[in-house]
Amino acid sequence: MTTDNVNHPQHYENHKIVLEPIGIIEGLPFSIANVIKYITRAHDKGSPLEDYRKAKWYYNRANRAFSHERLNSLLAPLAILRFSDNGTLRDFGRQIFNGREPWMAWTLIGNDLNRFIYALLDEHDMVPEELKEG
Questions:
Q1: Cβ 112 vs Cβ 99: under 8 Å
Q2: Torsions phi, psi of 15, nearest 5?
Q3: How far apart are CA 19 and CA 92, in angstroms?
Q4: Backbone CA torsion sign across 33, 56, 88, 98
Q5: H helices of 42-100, where?
Q6: Which of 28, 84, 94 is nearest to 59 (CA)?
Q7: What gap in Å lies between CA 100 and CA 25, rounded to an integer?
Q8: Residue by residue, what is the 3-state secondary structure of the chain?
Q9: Pairwise CA distance, residues 48 & 83, whole Å
Q10: If pLDDT is split at 50, 70 and 90, which confidence band does 12 have?
Q11: Strands (E), 88-128
Q12: 3-state secondary structure at position 44
């Protein structure tokens, strides 16, 4: 096996940084932290539909509680999520890292949540309240 000292230097392989969600969200306001938490665990803990609905509910709360300027300051550090295994959070983090205003990147999370919830509803389900708000 050859060593790739450019892309994967062996001397750094033993020093990878792995973050658990709690390490990222514990300093955030409750509503924003819960959006990240419920998105992260949606397919690992029982009911993706319920977790996405909860995430959307907290997303709507955060949008009512914080101005765009405040969201920008709260969400800017979440550019670290560009390293997430979760596609929605990874795209959100990349948007911020690449210079998009964090509150604008945040709207993409809301759009994804809407899409995920609609995809998981069955034909007899009523549209949930949290989708009617935003």
A1: no
A2: -125, 30
A3: 17
A4: negative
A5: 48-65, 68-75, 87-97
A6: 28
A7: 20
A8: CCCCCCCCCHHHHCCCCCCCHHHHHCCCCHHHHHHHHHHHHCCCCCCHHHHHHHHHHHHHHHHHHCCHHHHHHHHHHHHHHHHCCCHHHHHHHHHHHCCCCHHHHHHHHHHHHHHHHHHHCCCCCCCCHHHHHC
A9: 22
A10: low
A11: none
A12: coil
Instruction: Decide if pLDDT at 114 tops 90.
Output: yes
User: ∠ CA 128-115-101 to the nearest 5 degrees?
Assistant: 110
Give the model confidence (pLDDT) of 31-87 as tens digits. Answer: 999 999 999 999 888 899 999 999 999 999 999 999 999 999 999 999 999 988 899
Residue 124, helix vs strand vs coil: coil
pTM of the model: 0.82
- Tokens representing 85? 């295994």
Cβ neighbours, 10 Å, residue 17: 7
* Chain segment 87-104, per-residue pLDDT in tens: 999 999 999 999 999 999
Return the exposure string of 98-128: e unless at least 16 CB atoms fall within 10 Å of the residue's CB, then b: eebbbbebbbebbebbbebbeebeeeeeeeb
